[in-house]
Design a protein that fits this description.
This protein is mostly helical and 343 residues long. The protein has a single domain, classed as ABC transporter involved in vitamin B12 uptake, BtuC (Orthogonal Bundle). The chain is 68% helix and 7% strand. It is built from 15 helices and 4 strands. The longest helix has 31 residues. The protein starts with a helix and ends in a 14-residue tail after the last helix. One of its GO terms (molecular function) is transmembrane transporter activity. Keywords: Amino-acid transport, Cell membrane, Membrane, Transmembrane, Transmembrane helix, Transport.
């Protein structure tokens, strides 16, 4: 039982990333009808927002410490971060330690701005073009963004640790009645799942209970009629594109302590996230979230020693096998609207 619980937790961890990225993809497809293959790059940019904040907070000034000497007897040169000079050693060290959570505040306006620029500068010209054209242009944009990140940050993964308070693990087994050390799980992965649940709940609440969200949902169902009522639905859809970009960016920021950011991480998640969207149902927000967590749990169980020994490589193909089965039996996905992807 403890092994099953552990695999479910691992699945929820992976599913959180899949669900957040798929949620943004579905928001864009449901509102604008655009297949955005650059969405994985937004996840990557969010992760590098955290890297950038970490580097900014670690900017240092070099001073000479007369009380200390090097091996030649010369006064020792010491680098002190500016934040420690400004706020004191203890407060400054705490700010640097919490660089990833601080990056959330930094990334939200950045990702909103990038989303607006992408939609107004490029995506809007492809609304009425075939999906194949949309895929080609957004995939090309993703490659460009990937190479820009590679140029400025290099090709190697960049460690971005979680705050020290959440860098360890918790004994979940004791909390639910198991023997000590039966279920040990990292704090930050639990925080990532809780954060994903909070963001997903916030997006659904925004769409469900605000006037803006109600108009957006009406526009998703019948864009032309909403436009005839005198509502500037295009402007609202542009804002939703920015929100979708922010959701992907936040997913990337919080994922950095789990997997050190690298320039191709967006592509790594992009294909899997599109599979999640297709399985959940194109345009279905609940379907994207459900499929994200479901496929994350299936992938986790398929990665166990028993599964990989029984069927070698099953962990690499399980998501695609599920997608094939779903598309053969229910082309519109688990919760897709009737007629979508069925003609």
């Amino acid at each position: 039982m403890d092994a099953i619980i552990l695999q479910i937790l691992n699945g929820l961890d992976k599913g959180s990333a899949y669900a957040l990225i798929a949620l943004g993809l579905t928001l864009i497809f449901g509102t604008l009808g655009v297949v955005n293959f650059a969405h994985g790059a937004l996840f990557m940019i969010g992760a590098f927002c955290a890297v950038t904040v970490q580097r900014i907070l670690n900017l240092s000034v070099e001073t000479v410490d007369e009380s200390r000497t090097d091996f030649l007897g010369n006064p020792l040169k010491v680098k002190t971060p500016y934040v420690e000079n400004w706020f004191g050693p203890e407060v400054g060290a705490t700010i640097i330690d919490w660089s990833v959570p601080i990056a959330i505040l930094f990334s939200i306006p950045i990702m909103l701005l990038i989303g607006f620029i992408m939609e107004r500068g490029l995506i809007k010209h492809f609304y009425k073009r075939p999906h194949a054209d949309q895929i080609l242009v957004t995939f090309g944009l993703a490659i460009v963004l990937q190479e820009v990140i590679k140029y400025f940050y290099g090709a190697n993964p960049i460690p971005t640790p979680a705050p020290d308070a959440f860098s360890g693990s918790i004994d979940l087994g004791v909390l639910v009645g198991f023997d000590p050390n039966a279920i040990i799980y990292p704090y930050w992965r639990l925080i990532y799942f809780a954060f994903a649940a909070l963001v997903i709940g916030g997006v659904f609440a925004f769409l469900q209970f605000t006037t803006f969200g109600m108009v957006v949902r009406a526009g998703m169902a019948d864009r032309e009629t909403v436009g005839l009522l005198g509502i500037n639905i295009d402007r609202r859809f542009t804002i939703m594109f920015g929100i979708a970009a922010a959701v992907a960016g936040l997913a990337g920021v919080m994922y950095t302590p789990i997997n050190p950011p690298n320039y191709h991480m967006g592509m790594d998640f992009l294909v899997l996230s599109f599979v999640v969207v297709v399985v959940g149902g194109m345009g279905s927000l609940p379907g994207a979230v459900l499929a994200g967590f479901l496929l994350g749990i299936l992938e986790s169980f398929a990665s166990t020693t028993w599964a990989t020994t029984t069927i070698p490589g099953i962990n690499q193909i399980i998501i695609y096998l599920v997608a094939i089965i779903v598309l053969l039996t229910r082309p519109r996905g688990l919760m897709g609207r009737k007629g979508v992807m069925e003609d």
